[in-house]
Write a structure and sequence with these properties.
mainly beta, 10-stranded parallel sheet, 2 helices
């Protein structure tokens, strides 16, 4: 796009001034005079449009994560939870939970956390203790301080040095054959 200017006489002798500039050159302000107007000209600020930066994309991702965290359950220190947990996108355990998880997405057991029970989830990160039946369809990460025991099924398994896994442990791919 390029610049074009146009001056037109109106009956009341007011002028219309129109300027079109290349998009790459837009970064200043423009003044517009409207016909038949007794008001002063208004100033409109126009900013250059630039593609999103990695920081902008990260901010968008954090907004979408914030939406996902709306179904986040955190069991903090000094809290014990017993029962059934349903429809939780993210469960963070920093103390004791004895439960059955139903329709939950991911679980994080912190270094101070302990989970006993059953879960069939998409992803898990274990830094504390997990005891029971655990099926992780995608990534199971056992941190160096993590201890997992029981019946474990996983899509992908990652164990840091020092992490432990004991019991009936199988890849989901091997159980399909």
């Amino acid at each position: 796009m390029f610049a074009r200017e146009k001056d037109t006489k109106q009956k009341s002798d007011d002028r219309i001034h129109e300027t079109v500039t290349p998009l790459s050159d837009i970064s200043a302000t423009a003044t517009t005079v409207l016909p038949n107007s007794t008001e002063r000209p208004s100033t409109i600020s126009v900013s250059r449009v630039t593609p999103p930066t990695p920081a902008t994309l990260a901010a968008r991702d954090s907004k979408s994560e914030a939406k996902n965290d709306s179904k986040r359950l955190t069991v903090g220190r000094g809290i014990s939870l017993n029962g059934k947990i349903s429809f939780c996108d993210r469960l963070v355990i920093d103390d004791k939970v004895e439960a059955e998880l139903e329709d939950c997405h991911t679980v994080e057991v912190t270094e101070n956390g302990t989970f006993k029970g059953a879960a069939e989830i998409t992803g898990a990160e274990i830094s504390g203790h997990y005891d029971g039946s655990l099926t992780v369809r995608e990534n199971l990460l056992i941190r160096s301080t993590g201890r997992v025991s029981g019946t474990v099924r996983y899509g992908k398994l990652h164990i840091e040095d020092g992490g432990e896994i004991n019991g009936d442990v199988k890849s989901i791919a091997s159980t399909k054959n």
